Amino acid sequence: MSSKKIKEYINSNRRDFSNKPFNKEMAHDDPIKQYERWFEEALESKILDPYAACLSTVDFEGRPSSRILYIRDISKNGFIFYTNFNSKKGNDLNKNKYGSLNVFWPDLERQIRIQGVIEKVNNSTSDKYFNARPRSSQIGAWASNQSENLHNRAELEAKIEFFKKKFKNIEVPRPPHWGGYCLVPFLMEFWQGRPSRLHDRIVYKKESNKWIKSRLSP
Ligand SMILES: Cc1cc2nc3c(=O)[nH]c(=O)nc-3n(C[C@H](O)[C@H](O)[C@H](O)COP(=O)(O)O)c2cc1C
Known about the structure:
Number of strands: 9
Oligomer: single chain
Helix content: 25-40%
Distance between the termini: 33 Å
Strand content: 25-35%
Order of helices and strands: HHEEEEHEEHHHEEE
Bound molecules: flavin mononucleotide
């Protein structure tokens, strides 16, 4: 499709949001609990991949970079995801521990923005998750130098074969370069679409270890 056609399409499609209110009184005092409430509604609405989120990190020169990943656990501290520590995001986090997650559930007309400090989870948490993964994913974690150049697909497949043989008949150990990070939030915003772009935005900011709720202009 040409850019002109794309532009025509985009500009002729305007949908209004429905009229489901969200306000400070309805919002739980703890934003993680509020996330859990909305997550449950996302499940009830059969949203595809409700645990997918866009993670943004920033490199040492202040250049942001975003990618989708899966939030694999939620603790009272924050949001846990698993990845390769030597990836682009891992390198960014070595230099700059700040990051953000963005969850968009279009069917519910909802967005959740989360800003925080990202730290590695402890080894036993990473081990537990890694050990529960399918064997093919475990082998993949060894074979893929995530975010590094590959000459072709065959190079990756050869590495998969190499590690399949290496770990034949034994449990695949967690690679030292693979594990979990936890984004510990200091700000969370819950956005609910409303008609005429007059959306509801409730933001929580952590101040002196307490969450303070306020409403933002749409
Ligand atoms: C639906 C979906 C789920 C993904 N889940 C993960 C994940 O849990 N962990 C991960 O490292 N990459 C995941 N990815 C791949 C990332 O988007 C990205 O390509 C990869 O992490 C490398 O990013 P980086 O080069 O910025 O480090 C997922 C991609 C999609 C589209």
